[in-house]
């Protein structure tokens, strides 16, 4: 049955980004509705590994690195908040990440990274191969060219985090509607005043597109060229009652995350294949070869499932955050590519600041919609 709804802020997209914004708005008592075309968290968010890799993922200093480090620092407090509001545990694991060098070029890049990250005030320790294998066990890891240990890069379990954000936002008054797909914009005098869905129109004072890899498609109706496109990632989930190590091990083209529930997440490919999100044997065979080459003990672990999702890639690798010039009432929070879980905490915070007319706690110029959207 078709029915009409009104809300102050309408968030389109119930992945980790849309839900993190809803949580922040609900804390600020802003009336918020999230609509999601499938189930909450069912797309890129469900597929993600959950690394909070502010250091391991960044090759150079710059706005993305700053944003990542700022966001990572919000997680311990966020964890306490979610525990207090809804009793949900995001399964934050803090042993840190080893970024393992697999050849001499890799080693030199990591040693350079250690220097700039330390001078930027972060912890980053170098371990030679023999020390590394003493820590991890040489039956666990094969020979390496040394590794950079990043003790402050953590991980969460994505769906536990997402469900905690949803339950907490609901407890604070936010509303969520699944199986509700936005099919177009409601406009009046050039302003966005809501969206059309198959279940009827929804009017809103502000509309936020947090639609991940689909954001570019949705902009087309307004003749907006939003430079966000899908980048497929495939991973494997394995079972283990006792994961081979408590640390996350990250190397070229592959990473291994022991999860608190005993599972081991092995990720991830990076492929440009449009909106095809199906896992395939060739990519997964290559990934498992790389993982077993680094950590031979994985070979005997049974499969849980293959995983695939579409990361929201952006043209310059930075997320797109803020109001859309020339489209009053429309905002975008998307393009978080490989780091949407890491960046969800700061994205929720700054989008709440934008939407409530406050000074943002981070300079959003490098992430502005204006830099990238052609109107
Ligand atoms: C294999 C893999 C590993 C990853 N590992 C990590 C990691 O370790 N750490 C990290 O930080 N990040 C990681 N990421 C990236 C991270 O998962 C993404 O950046 C993040 O999930 C993006 O969140 P999102 O909410 O923008 O997108 P999504 O989770 O895709 O959510 C967007 C939502 O919008 C909905 N939607 C789209 N169109 C409409 C419409 N018309 N109407 C209503 N709803 C709509 C979709 O159904 C979807 O649920 C990984 C990603 C992959 C694929």
CATH fold type of the largest domain: FAD/NAD(P)-binding domain
Mean pLDDT over all positions: 95
Structural class: alpha/beta
Measured distance between first and last alpha carbons: 35 Å
Largest β sheet strand count, sense and barrel closure:
8 strands, mixed
What best-fitting shape do the alpha-carbon axes yield?
globular
- CATH class of the largest domain, named Alpha Beta
Please give the count of helices.
10
How many β-strand runs?
Answer: 18
Structural notes for this entry:
- It is built from ten helices and 18 strands.
- With 375 residues, the chain is an alpha/beta fold.
- It has two domains: 169 residues, FAD/NAD(P)-binding domain (3-Layer(bba) Sandwich), CATH 3.50.50.60; 142 residues, D-Amino Acid Oxidase, subunit A, domain 2 (D-Amino Acid Oxidase, Chain A, domain 2, 2-Layer Sandwich).
- Strands 1, 2, 8, 9, 10, 11, 17 and 18 form an eight-stranded mixed beta sheet that branches.
- The longest helix has 16 residues.
- The radius of gyration is 21 Å and the shape is globular.
- The structure holds flavin-adenine dinucleotide (FAD).
- The site of flavin-adenine dinucleotide has 43 residues, from α1, α2, β12, β16 and α10.
């Amino acid at each position: 049955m078709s029915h009409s709804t009104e809300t102050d802020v309408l968030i389109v997209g119930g992945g980790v980004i849309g839900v993190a914004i809803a949580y922040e708005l609900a804390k600020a008592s802003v009336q918020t509705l999230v609509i999601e075309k499938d189930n909450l968290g069912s797309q890129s968010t469900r597929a993600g590994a959950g690394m909070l890799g502010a250091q391991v993922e960044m090759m150079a200093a710059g706005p993305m690195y700053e944003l990542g480090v700022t966001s990572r620092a919000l997680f311990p407090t966020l964890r306490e908040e979610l525990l207090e509001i809804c009793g949900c545990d995001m399964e934050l694991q803090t042993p840190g990440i080893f970024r393992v060098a697999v050849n001499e070029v890799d080693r030199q890049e990591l040693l350079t990274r250690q220097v700039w990250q330390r001078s930027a005030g972060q912890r980053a320790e170098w371990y030679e191969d023999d020390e590394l294998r003493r820590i991890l066990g040489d039956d666990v890891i094969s020979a390496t060219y040394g590794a950079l240990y990043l003790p402050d890069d953590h991980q969460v379990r994505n769906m536990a985090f997402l469900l905690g954000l949803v339950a907490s936002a609901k407890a604070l008054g936010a509303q969520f509607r699944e199986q509700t797909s936005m099919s177009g914009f409601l406009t009046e005098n050039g302003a966005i005043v809501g969206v059309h869905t198959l279940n009827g129109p929804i009017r809103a004072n502000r509309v936020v597109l947090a639609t991940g890899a689909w954001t570019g498609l949705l902009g087309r109706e307004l003749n907006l060229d939003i430079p966000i496109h899908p980048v497929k990632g495939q991973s494997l989930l394995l079972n283990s009652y006792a994961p081979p190590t408590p640390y996350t091990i990250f190397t070229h083209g592959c990473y291994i995350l022991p999860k608190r529930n005993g599972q081991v997440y092995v990720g991830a490919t990076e492929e440009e294949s449009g909106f095809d999100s199906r896992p395939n044997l060739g990519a997964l065979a290559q990934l498992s070869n790389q993982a077993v080459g680094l950590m031979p003990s994985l070979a005997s672990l049974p499969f849980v499932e293959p995983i695939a999702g579409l990361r929201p890639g952006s043209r310059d690798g930075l997320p797109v955050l803020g109001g859309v010039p020339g489209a009053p009432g429309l905002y975008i929070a998307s393009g978080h590519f490989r780091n949407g879980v890491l960046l969800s905490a700061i994205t929720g915070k700054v989008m709440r600041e934008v939407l409530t007319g406050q000074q943002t706690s981070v300079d959003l110029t490098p992430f502005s919609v204006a830099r990238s959207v052609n109107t």
